[in-house]
């Protein structure tokens, strides 16, 4: 039996015992949204921006927000308290709820399903960080609302599998010749003294790690730039990083079988890596985290 305790619709229960109806719209239609929030030193990291993004996803999809900000915060804190790990990652999912008759059109009386659990957040494997990762580029086959953190991740799964089949670790997604993001991360490039990432729009998720890294850039002598990145520009970058709450910044050393820089994790990534660890420490001390 699992030692993890999950929250499902107002009740705590062992993760493995938690059950939702097969008529839940999340199961039948992928009709739901989610969040992944890291916890460092038993403190929820950057809670405010994560909550803000969850509220954006709920509002954009028209799923009623089932909790107040205070209730969401209490739920996150309870998840942490109920589990032994110092560093964790919280998973929160809200679907539109169970509908007795399958219909694309949702009934408006539905009660959202709320599911949350936590796992141990282990640091990235040091060997992977030393070596870096290999990526392919692929056409971004997703929909036009990638700013919503939707549970409907089939396209992301397919593109990740495509990368695996090509012998790569991940894929960088290209829409109309421009970089959008990774399959589960944002993309940043280093060009000289600039840290460049595509501007926020409907084609990518507003990553919390992305924003923290942009905020950190000046501290290590980098100019943060939000600008479209063409595939040609991507190929010429000094460094490429994938960024997310669980990966932090991950150096890409090979793209479509060509070396990025000299084919090893670059010096700017090394500098950002140590700065980001300090910044994490600072932000966990500060209630609410990054803005
Ligand atoms: N995903 N873009 C996509 C498509 C993502 O799925 C994620 C994160 C990000 C980075 O967002 P953040 O920095 O806030 O983690 C960007 C999470 C980790 C996941 O699905 O597990």
UniProtKB/TrEMBL annotation:
<comment type="function">
    <text>Involved in the biosynthesis of p-aminobenzoate (PABA), a precursor of tetrahydrofolate. Converts 4-amino-4-deoxychorismate into 4-aminobenzoate (PABA) and pyruvate.</text>
</comment>
<keyword id="KW-0663">Pyridoxal phosphate</keyword>
<dbReference type="GO" id="GO:0046656">
    <property type="term" value="P:folic acid biosynthetic process"/>
</dbReference>
<dbReference type="GO" id="GO:0005829">
    <property type="term" value="C:cytosol"/>
</dbReference>
<dbReference type="InterPro" id="IPR043132">
    <property type="entry name" value="BCAT-like_C"/>
</dbReference>
<protein>
    <recommendedName>
        <fullName>Aminodeoxychorismate lyase</fullName>
        <ecNumber>4.1.3.38</ecNumber>
    </recommendedName>
</protein>
<dbReference type="InterPro" id="IPR043131">
    <property type="entry name" value="BCAT-like_N"/>
</dbReference>
<dbReference type="Pfam" id="PF01063">
    <property type="entry name" value="Aminotran_4"/>
</dbReference>
<dbReference type="GO" id="GO:0008696">
    <property type="term" value="F:4-amino-4-deoxychorismate lyase activity"/>
</dbReference>
<dbReference type="GO" id="GO:0008652">
    <property type="term" value="P:amino acid biosynthetic process"/>
</dbReference>
<comment type="pathway">
    <text>Cofactor biosynthesis; tetrahydrofolate biosynthesis; 4-aminobenzoate from chorismate: step 2/2.</text>
</comment>
<keyword id="KW-0289">Folate biosynthesis</keyword>
<dbReference type="InterPro" id="IPR050571">
    <property type="entry name" value="Class-IV_PLP-Dep_Aminotrnsfr"/>
</dbReference>
<comment type="similarity">
    <text>Belongs to the class-IV pyridoxal-phosphate-dependent aminotransferase family.</text>
</comment>
<dbReference type="InterPro" id="IPR001544">
    <property type="entry name" value="Aminotrans_IV"/>
</dbReference>
<dbReference type="InterPro" id="IPR036038">
    <property type="entry name" value="Aminotransferase-like"/>
</dbReference>
